[in-house]
Amino acid sequence: MLAFLLFLIGFFPLVWVYGRAGVSLAARLSAAAPRADWALTAWVGLAMLSTLANLLALLMPLSAAALLITLVIALTAALALRCTLWLGLPALRLPRGWGWLAAGLALAALAAVLENATHTPANFDSGLYHAQTIRWFETYRIVPGLGNLHSRLAFNSSWLVLSALFSLAFTGLQSFHLIPGALFALVVLDGARGALRLLRGELSMANWLRLLLLPLAFYILGAEISSPGTDMPGILIAWSLAALWLERPARGEERLTALLLALTAVYLVTIKLSLGVFLLLVPLAWLRGGRGLRLAGQIILGGALVALPWMAHSVILSGYLVYPLAAVDLFNVDWKIPIAKVREEVNVIRAWARFPDMDRTQALEMPLERWLKLWFLEHTVNQRLILLAAASSPLLSGAAALWTRLRRHWAYSAAAAAQLYAVTLLSGLYWLYNAPDLRFGYGILLLLITLPLAWGLWLAGAAWRAPADWLARAAVLAVGVYLLSFLARSFQADSLAQRWLLPMPYPSLPSEPCDLDGRTIFCPAEISYTQCWYGPFPCVPSARSDVYLRGSDFADGFSAYPRGE
């Protein structure tokens, strides 16, 4: 726990410096004052850090030297921005009146993050490939054709690259997995900010959304706080982006805010490709920012700076610009994953997400109405309720829009909510068709449910102010009670003596030597159920006979027969 607290003390200022550097650069391009919401500044900071990590990984392992370069750049930026470095950072003031309720909520949430961030990672996919991906980035610069060794290693995510940069494995203590907890803490502070504003009478749609999503974040992602998975950061940043989208920027900051929102949407997709529909926010941000060729050029340039290093990773890992989209097939490199394997990977994921235990061909060829009904019935009662609530959300959003029109209360927030809901609904339909496993779709489904609810609460606050104020206080209190109960349920007293200083390491499961093109690698033992975790290395679920080394060392990469055919 102490290590996590020390990590936050160093990581938060670093994110802020990079975020302020990004905001200042965007402000110069937009001819605006370099001022932005602190949460948006944090996401811009993460985007810049991830972009730098992607660039460094092209040149070197993400070890001590890479981290030192990151710190030197941060120090240089801090000196250059010394006069405006802390611009936009909220002042820390003792809360008054009902504000203490928000402070208590924040403390309960941060305590839950501290507790869970030090647990043993439990995400299955982290054992399958996340931890091994991080170790590859720690050990070598990006390896050509790594996806041939194991297809999941080509699932290019900026989040895993960032996790490798800050794993601190070079200390010899362990490869730390503290970045997810740091992200969760940032989202907790954003949620507490929404609670405090509600208690002060700012009953906006964005503040209601922040409060509603805070307990849901712990409900569906609490067990993920200690795991370097890619689902959690995608969901949390998408939710925070949704709240920021609903807020109107101050006069004169429209262009800058539009540019930063567009960059955050692009960064979101580099974390989790399945959130690609959120790229529709990019042209919408351009429309909101006043349009114009200059703003369009700024958005394209900024988006390219974030996306191109990520795409370069994809080309080197797999031979494709965006893996596993086989349709985007532009390169003919010798390490390219055979296109038949890419298509097979997509079909495996789609079939597994529908019916994990069914024959793949049967799952994919089943008519839509049949598999949809069978898929729905296979979920638990609670999961069905979530699915039904999400399916009925178009009616709720339509009712909220109609109420807004009838009350002549249509405003910036209502238009923004309509845009955001349309994008979220399209993202939900994309999820349902391509990979309808609830673990992949919880973030979208819950946003579909909470967005019209926040819309309705905003309208109720405008119509009946006094009852809405008391409702806000009751809601903040209820969320605080839930967070305390979550903390109590997730507390692991038996491992506290091991966790008070350092977090629990990755699990260690039995493995066996296996042969790959005459070289010894490792494969999980049968009881490990395909999970390698962090060690041994390199480790894959099974060694493929059609894969060969491109050179004498693993750093030279891997190719497969038939070569790219």
How would you state the average pLDDT, rounded?
A: 93
Biggest sheet layout: 2 strands, antiparallel
Helix segment tally: 22
Poorly predicted sequence stretches spanning 5 or more consecutive residues: none
What order do the strands of the largest sheet run in, or round the barrel if closed?
1-2
Structural class: mainly alpha
Specify the helix fraction band: 55-70%
Spell the H/E element sequence: HHHHHHHHHHHHHHHHHHHHHHEEEE
Question: Span between N and C termini?
Answer: 50 Å
Shape: globular
Estimated radius of gyration? 24 Å
Q: In total, how many beta strands?
A: 4
Fraction in beta strands:
under 5%
Account of the 3D structure:
Helices cover 63% and strands 3% of the residues. It is mostly helical. It has a two-stranded antiparallel sheet with strand order 1-2. Strands 3-4 form a two-stranded antiparallel ribbon. Helix 2 (38-57) crosses helix 13 (293-318) and helix 18 runs antiparallel to helix 19 (412-434).
Question: How is the secondary structure organized here?
Answer:
Layout: H1 2-30, H2 38-57, H3 64-80, H4 99-117, H5 124-139, H6 146-149, H7 158-165, H8 179-199, H9 205-221, H10 231-246, H11 254-271, H12 281-288, H13 293-318, H14 339-354, H15 360-365, H16 368-377, H17 381-391, H18 393-406, H19 412-434, H20 438-463, H21 465-490, H22 496-499, E1 511-516, E2 519-524, E3 547-549, E4 558-560
Antiparallel strand pairs: 1-2, 3-4
Helix pairs in contact: 1-2, 1-3, 1-11, 2-7, 2-11, 2-13, 4-8, 4-21, 5-7, 8-9, 8-10, 9-10, 9-20, 9-21, 10-11, 10-20, 11-12, 11-13, 17-20, 18-19, 18-20, 19-20, 20-21
